Amino acid sequence: MAVVEQVKKDYDNSAVNYNDYGSLPFGQLESELIKIALGDCSGLAILDLGGGTGVHAREAIDLGAVTVDLVDISPEMLKIGLEIEKSLGRENTIRFFEADVSKPLSHLPLHENGYDVVMANWIFSHAGSMEVLEGMFRNVVGYLKPGGRFVSVRDADPNSPAVENGKYGATYKCVKDIPGGSKYLLVLHCTRPIEFEGASLEIIYSGSTEMHERFGLTDVEVVPSESTEVIQKDPEFWKLFLERPSFAVVKATKEME
Description:
This is Methyltransferase domain-containing protein. It comes from Endocarpon pusillum. By secondary structure, this protein is α/β, with parallel strands linked by helices. It has helices at about 5-15, 25-40, 55-60, 75-85, 130-140, 200-205, 210-215, 230-235, 240-245, and strands at about 45-50, 65-70, 95-100, 115-120, 145-155, 170-180, 180-190, 195-200, 215-220, 245-255.
């Protein structure tokens, strides 16, 4: 099965239970870090690449964003996201589009003048080749206004002890080397376990800023995990993660023209 079809299948199969991830320790930490990275979104238009059911899109709305356009490869994830929006009595606050975010998105009715913020959470965990990774970065930068903010969740260490025993709600299994990176099976330990096949390149999980800089992103920085309330409340519990983080939330700015 082609990689893109496997990703689509994995997310379609997990769509109903995916929002349970937010209750896991990793999910709580990720949510806090993204909200810190987003900051004040008052009046902003946001593009959410690989946004799934809209978990972080809704957080952006809560932080003041006027609208979020969300693009994801999984029709089932999009369907659930749309149902959630309807249950909240909202229409077109979050727009949902189905597409592969590593390919050109010109066929979608996205904002021609760009977005104030572009989010790309975990999409680089499905980029097992430079061709795919570069396609994702082209979309990030192509739709981001000059001076706009980029926010991303990425792998930090596929071999971290923090993802060996499920302590924080996730396990990486069958980690194998691929050219330039690693391939793995991710298990989220929700009430009903969720599995995804992932692949990440070292140029991303090593913490290198090379790709960001190549595509005109500056001021690249990792949001400190220690700045979150969930870790401040129980630093001992998070000690294993802090020693060798398995993921990171990164923010950057697009260069002014």
